[in-house]
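HOLO CASE FILE
Compound: zinc ion
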Amino acid sequence: MFARELTVVQQHCQSEAIKSARNGLWLLLPEVPPVSRVPAEPMRLDYLIKARAVHSMTGDIFRSVGVHGAAIVAVSPEIGGLDDMVSSSTLVAEVGDLTVWPAFADSHEHLVEASRNSLLVPVDRARSVAEFTRMVADAAKAVPENDWILTSIGWHESNLAENRLPNLAELDAAAPDHPVLARRGGHLAVVNSAALRAAGISAETPDPPGGKIGRLADGSWSGVLEGGAVYKVAAFAPGPSRAELAGALGTTSAAYAALGVGTIREAMATADELLSYQDAWEHEQLQVRVRLMMRVGSEQSTDEAISLIRGLGARSGLGDDWLRIWGLKLVLDGGVEGAALDEPYVNDPANSGHLNWEPAAMTQVCAEAVRLGWRIGTHAVGDRALRTLLDVYEAVVRQTGPLPPWTLVIEHGLLSDSALRDRAVRAGFGVTVQYPILWNMASEMLNTWGPERTSRVTPLDQWLAVGADLAAGTDIVRPFNPMTNVWGMVTRGTKSAGVQGAEHGIDAATALRLYTMGTAALNHEQDRLGSVAPGKLADLVGYPVDPTAAVAADLADLTPAFTMVGGRITYDPAKRLAR
Ligand SMILES: [Zn+2]
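Model generated. Tokens follow.
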């Protein structure tokens, strides 16, 4: 980190001696010319990348980039412009077939959730009951007797050839000596006899409040649990250990690196999960930089929430370039099915969603958090939630005084109108935008919100037209290809509901900028990440297609040839950056 700071210092300072505010040392530095190279004396490069084009994200297009340690130290518009910096230890990567730009920085993703999911049996891939139960049996063979077998929750019987749930007898046959809990979505599960035994459920156990323990016609258990019965059993099924989660953070983050991601802003972590992150960081398992949001749950009283924040004993910005605390995360309303809307749900006219926080209490919590040095990101999906959030944030600023950009952040803001957008921009509240939510859930939105609202979900063109600060991300609990997201921001195409609101598409260059510079600004790191320039950290990707010149259809499935994070290669399957 010190070497990187020195580089930045060398770039920006013309004075011979400067005081390092952080360590109090006086550093004697050479004068450097205001050109695209640091320091003035030729420096040994670790990497010299010669590409078809290097998009700086600030308007310049280069042909060559020099990397030393964790930083970019030189750039040139000429393919041979940095040849004098090559030494015997420099790796010269001749990648004239690739276009290079800063690695993607995801403004809102759930790496913890994706990592935890990776430890579960992936029955969402099963296409028959037999395949489903074989996966469970294989998982049981791999662990000691009585260990719980937990499946991923994203499966559905409609994807199984038999179009029915697996039953208790089938799960008993697959894993007689292991409790099996196969949750399907949030409110339903199938289990085996060992799971019911482990949860203390006997023939006499009544249905729990708000739940049902399914029975067959003869009164025996069917294995199907609903509502409260799911939670009753799940309470006995342990989550992954701290070490297991740390390992999974490593392997899952590698899957993101393979898709060109250099930084993830983790959108929800608890103090326990922070420990797993620190373990993964300490063992250099993280393949992406992580900026963490710490959860402040709405189930707490105002006093409890404030004492939780005080108890964190830190504030935004703690950490290093790999793992840093971004701020706090609050959730104001639900998802597609619980978003707080101005107009009711089209499929349920009595319902207009719910708010999790009482605005006055939320204002008190947020104002105290800001005074303690915290940034805050709040999930607000519906237009009523966005309006309430603006009320709260504006009230906070009235108490605290003006705040730097990206201190109070709107997460999602899927539904907005021009008045709400104007308010957010005027007050300087940035928005993290996730096109993949529309890509994935457009069919559900059409059912619940109707076609008019669905077509104007996340209108990037409208936000940009009024000068909003935006940062692009995904918010999907699985590795999501950033280039599919770029394609979606351009085309407004979705997974299974066609094109929604084509007029709100933006161009690919702007999409890339929101996904690099935008997130760097969100993370208060625009001086060190988000663009290709001397002194910036060497987070780079190389792709076989230039998105700014390609037709949109060629972008959707594109994956990188390499990903580099801080001068460290995190993905390079064809060894393009190797000797
Ligand atoms: Zn989220």
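CASE NOTES: Residues 1-35 have pLDDT under 50 and may be disordered. Residues 108, 110, 267, 475 surround zinc ion (CB under 6 Å).
CLOSED: yes
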